[in-house]
Amino acid sequence: MKKKDKALEQAQALVSQMTIEEAASQLYYISPAIERLGIPAYNWWNEALHGVARAGTATMFPQAIGLAAMFDDELLEKMAEATGTEARAKYNIQSKYGDRDIYKGVTMWSPNINIFRDPRWGRGHETYGEDPYLTSRLGTAFVKGLQGDGEYMLAAGCAKHFAVHSGPENIRHSFDAQCSLKDMNETYLPAFQALVEDAKVEGVMGCYNRINGEPGCASDTLMGMLKEWGFDGYFTSDAWAIRDFYQGHHVVEDKEHAAALALSKGCDTNCGDTYPEGLMAAYRDGLITEEQIRTAAVHLFRTRFRLGLFDDQNGFENLGPDDIATPEHRAVSLKCAEKSMVMLKNNGILPLDKSKLKSVAVIGPNADSIDALRGNYYGTSAHYVTFLDGIREELGEDVRLYYSEGCHLFEDRVEHLAEPDDRLAEARCMIEAADVSILCLGLDATIEGEEGDTGNAFASGDKISLELPESQQRLLNMALNTGKPVIVVLAAGSSLNPHAESAAAILQAWYPGECGGAALANILFGKVSPSGKLPVTFYENTDQLPDFTDYSMAGRTYRYLDGNVLYPFGFGLTYSKVSLSDMSFDGNEVSVIIANTGNFDTDEVVQVYVRDPESPDEVKNYRLCGFKRISLARGEEKRVTMTLDKNAFTLVNDEGKRVPGSGKYILWAGISQPDPLSESLTGVGCLKTEACVR
Whole-prediction pTM value? Predict the structure, then answer.
């Protein structure tokens, strides 16, 4: 008997022994114990976006957007496996002592595979960026690593937030995202389909907003797609999203009808309070049936059986404290941080040579900030290394280090009783005294993130522009005006324009996890070459973007943009130089020779883009359809072969149907997009070939 069939039969047998009241009680995210049946309590709400979150000590990896910048599905899968191992270990040790609280289970509500369509969205750093193919590949890798491939799942993944969901945060509980069938099937749904069909993701979470009038947690359209894709896991609402049915969307009049609507459309569990208070009332009034309640309960217990939660010998029973925050997992976190950082500019100052330095100034509100390492949905690291810590450790006793906070992250002064810019004079003194200054600027999740989780009440976590906070821009301008060499390090989860044209170098560090400072130091001082690539477009400004509430892809992301680009999707510099040659295409594979012609060992990401120039269904520009990260020693040459996206030679028409293209395609292979700006910034052109695919 197949493993999944066995779990289904076990779930059906167990649920058949429950009263209807007991079965209904299990559809709440805080599922109570049923002692007479030997069922312990279980809390379905658990987080693992970049390591086990909100449950105490765990390895903290770079935020998801940083993991995306690695363009490395193999390393991401390894990171997710480490996360799943720690989740299971923490579950074991906590449930041993009867602690079955929130965030302490093994149904992890990750990954977030929404498309980062607009740089203003505060939660964009939870995602894998703006491209549906990249998101599909990375999300699939995450789920496979997290769930494992044994008799029982290591932990259960959950694809969220289904679907067409990416801000604005302040109206998400009432907003109706209007989306064309083409945009929906071309951009917003492919990653969800890939996680269901290819990764066999165990859970799917609905979104807060409506999509073309239907609530995301009770959508005939979306639920129908899950059935078409063969989804056989459990479906959960987002937190208190079902309450929005009557309080925000006004599609029903009360919680009883909201509970009935959600359950009848296929929402198995309610994260919120609507099911506990409304479900049995809806049943008694004939709005839902006993069969619907029991079917949902079966889905939930099927997942618990697949996880081996009723088997004391499930293969994971020996995982415990020694498997949490291990040196091996910390090493993975460091490697991820090193591969995630993107060098946007370098006039030759990097890497720094310690032997030629007498003093270094480390300046800025993110220099010694743990928040700048964490992003959101984070765990508690056993050992944080801030940017200042990492640089100090690297410099040792031989080079003088000056440190100043420089300014507050976003307020106009550090000390509330002081005058504005109360750290500016201190910072200027240190910058002028140092041989080189490293300015650690940007944001953190207290000002970009989810509604209710940030101190950014004026925009509910969304950004209102791409500018640095004014306090930081004044600090940066002062530093640049000294004429001393300045290296800008941006900790942020999204596109910024720091107006730092005269900076000697710019590094995008994202929110790089517990080892972020060590990774930054390794890059700054040449132990590691930077090799990350942007998973999102860095725009010049928001003035040229469509309205934030417009879900059309026209004028958004590299596939549909025309201008307004500061740094392109897929762009990132290294310390070395490469050349490309001998591109070939065979069936669904592209291969190319890449040679490291520079003076540094480095990783590089080879990227393949496709366009059908004759089809009216093609995107405005071109589409990423293949990529591969490789390591190249100085002087080394490799032939790199990439398997292309299975949808590379199909297109989505205006009816939302995936259809064959014209049969004649253009393929590009390079270390960036095939656009003039990318090729100018990298100094490396893309190779091009034509392909006939019928």
Answer: 0.98
